[in-house]
Amino acid sequence: MSVKTLYRHLKLASDIPIRCPLCNEPMTVHRFYHHHALENHRLQSRKQCLFCKGEARWAHGEKNRPANVKHVVECLKRFVIIANETYVLSRKQQNVMNQIEETK
Fold first, then answer.
1. What is the rounded CA–CA span in Å between residue 7 and residue 9?
2. Using an 8 Å Cβ cutoff, are 96 and 33 in contact?
3. The whole model's pTM is what?
4. Which uninterrupted H or E stretch holds 82?
């Protein structure tokens, strides 16, 4: 896979609402990838995969190797599915809690 593919997937997913898997804060994929992961959790996209919480690492400058790009793209796809489901579930739970509060 190419770097172009990675950025195409990132662009397609950029507006998807998610919750950060580390701190549960709501945000978009774009905010998580470009700001939140580095600023709040010290994850560096040049040296590690942000989508598996830094478990996959590589030396500085090796991010664009095909094997690393393939890993990040596959991880991004999984991350978006799981993080979005978590976001939707928490919104539903919040709505239920609000309805319970209103009926009291």
1. 5
2. no
3. 0.75
4. helix 66-103
Structure-token pair, residue 11: 């662009």
Q: Which residues contact 61 (CB under 8 A, 6 or more apart)?
A: 46
Q: Which residues is 17 bridged to in the sheet?
A: 28
Residue 95: C-alpha distances to residues 21, 48, 88, 103, 104 (Å): 21, 36, 11, 12, 15
Could you report the per-residue pLDDT of 36-65, keeping only the tens digit for each? Answer: 999 999 998 889 999 998 899 999 889 899
83 CB-contact burial (10 Å; exposed 0-12 / middle 13-18 / buried 19+): buried
For residue 68, give both structure tokens: 């690393």
